[in-house]
Amino acid sequence: MLNFGIVGTSDISHRFIEAAHLSGHYQLQAVFSRRLETAAAFSEQYEGVDLYTEWVKFLSAPIDVVYIASPNALHFEQAKAVLAAGKHAIVEKPMVSTPQELEQLRRVAQENNVFLFEAARNYHEQAQAIIREFLTDKTILGGSFGYAKYSSKMPELLAGQMPNIFSTDFSGGALMDFGVYTLYAAIGILGTPRTARYVAQQLPFGIDLNGSGQLIYDNYIVHIQA
């Protein structure tokens, strides 16, 4: 049994806890939040959970794994600290904001002999393996991958607020929030493209509300919608 901690108190963390407990291999032990009342409200449905508002003390807690579901831009520094503390990290998608951040996390994980995972379920599913196998002897002429959803945070944005998911400061936007699903599916099935491009409908403050991209392979083009 592995004891795990949670960073980030949104609904997705509750869903992760439920799945982790159902597996029979994990037990929630600790929750971190900047505010004690937030951690307490989040944890009230669970028993025997330690609450932390000090990051250093949380990293010293008796836990083996940390699930990170904070705003996107915080993932890198938090995951780096977790790995350096000798704990495994499961980071919500997108794990990082840049390729350079990913390389740093991989290096820290290797140095501390711990695992680093991205919580992006779709490319671990059997369906992708089946599709890849089916396409092995097929001639691919192109493809299209899309995922569109009305954001639950849109009412806040329309009311003049700035939810993290629409903030450039927190690595938000359509491509980072929903586009990763289509990118992971396309690249997981077809492999790494030769190059890529992306054109977005941008809001006045620079974030992409939606967009269209292309993955350029040697003999075909794959279209991405976010």
TrEMBL record:
Enzyme class label: oxidoreductase
Signal peptide stretch: none
GO molecular function list: nucleotide binding; oxidoreductase activity
EC number(s) reported in the record: 1.-.-.-
Keyword Oxidoreductase: yes
InterPro entries: Gfo/Idh/MocA-like_OxRdtase_N, NAD(P)-bd_dom_sf
Protein's UniProt name: Dehydrogenase and related proteins
Keyword entries, A-Z: Oxidoreductase
The keyword Oxidoreductase belongs to this UniProt entry's keyword annotation: yes
The Gfo/Idh/MocA-like oxidoreductase N-terminal domain, residue ranges: 2-117
